[in-house]
Amino acid sequence: MKRLLAFLLSITAAFGLAACGGTGNNASSGEASSAPQSSEAPSSSAGSSEASGEVAPAASNGPLKVVTTSDAYQVLFDKFTEDTGIQVEYLSMSSGEVLSKVKAEGGAPMADLWFGGGIDAFMQAKEDGLLEQVDFDGAADLAPEYKDADNHWFSKGLTVVGFIVNNDILAEKNLELPKTWDDLINPAYKSEILMSNPAISGTNYAVVNAILQTKGEEAGWKYFEDLNANIDYYSKRGKDPSEKTVAGEIAIGITYLDKAMEKLQEEQNVTLVYPEDGIPYVPEGVAVFKGGTNADGAKEFIKWFYQDENLREIIPLDNKDTVKIVKPNLENVELSFPVESLMKEDLSLFGSQRSAILDKWNTMIGDKAETDE
């Protein structure tokens, strides 16, 4: 918590400097911004450590500032600090919010490292020239479909999506358990489904893109129009569909599925559904922002993270083992679901189609997107 507060205070200070006639790299609402670029050339210890395959402690331009999707990663950041001596400060934010904020600030980086979130936002960020190229030996061991061809972003695992269903509500309203995506457009489920907003959630943007690819443009949008008729609003928080389903506020939540959800199924009267007509998925990204104050520290983190012992650290934190898909030769890790059940997705379309899809999506749903008000 102290690190998080320190990050927020440093961001607020940077905002104040920019507002007083600085470089313009300010952040609205004081949530995120980069500090002024140091005039000193950053020192680096990557030479000898790359040759040995180990990460040695490196000098850096202050703490490594990270924007990430979860506070749970503090454990990982603490281990990085122990191994390298580089301090970490972090701020939690969804991938869609990160991309929107950085673009709104004219490309000014809000941190040094971007850790987690849907890969569509990372792809778009690369196209917009917002990410730094990071070359390291370990990149060759990553599956080519889960890393950028030019090493501007890498994946750390996959998020898969299905349904969580409240059994009590189904019984009370005499509704059948949905088993497929097509089942969800049954008018019997009107006002009984919750989905987080794909414009904010990289996970649910992946659902939209994957189903459009599977069904085709015309049939895909017709499907979402029918689904939209059964959804009263789209939540801002990615956890709302699962939490509100467990709480009995909604019958069906469209949500990511992982080991934490499997535990909920054991403890609560809910059922997890891996859709029989295909499981959408989205790789989760890792990247270095271009122009950050500690690019050396961010690159050092990536080299460190993709060592096997550190990749294994992410499994209990993410509650899933899909890092094995990203690095197939990772030992002592086994997948808990069949890879063949995943939808066939062309990931190259996730970034290039993002703006057009979300523009059409926002028009379709009208005022159903949840706001802060």
As an assembly, this protein is single chain
The whole-angstrom Rg is: 21 Å
Which descriptor suits the 3D outline? Answer: globular
Q: pLDDT below 50 for ≥5 consecutive residues: which ranges?
A: 4-60
Largest sheet: 10 strands, mixed
Helix content: 25-40%
Distance between the termini: 26 Å
State the secondary-structure class: alpha/beta
Q: Report mean pLDDT, rounded to a whole number.
A: 84
Strands, total number: 10
Number of helices: 15
Overall description:
By secondary structure, this protein is α/β, with parallel strands linked by helices. The chain is built from 15 helices and ten strands. Strands 1, 2, 3, 4, 5, 6, 7, 8, 9 and 10 form a ten-stranded mixed β-sheet that branches. The longest helix has 18 residues, at 2-19. The protein is globular and about 60 Å long. The relative contact order is 0.17. Residues 4-60 have low confidence and may be disordered.
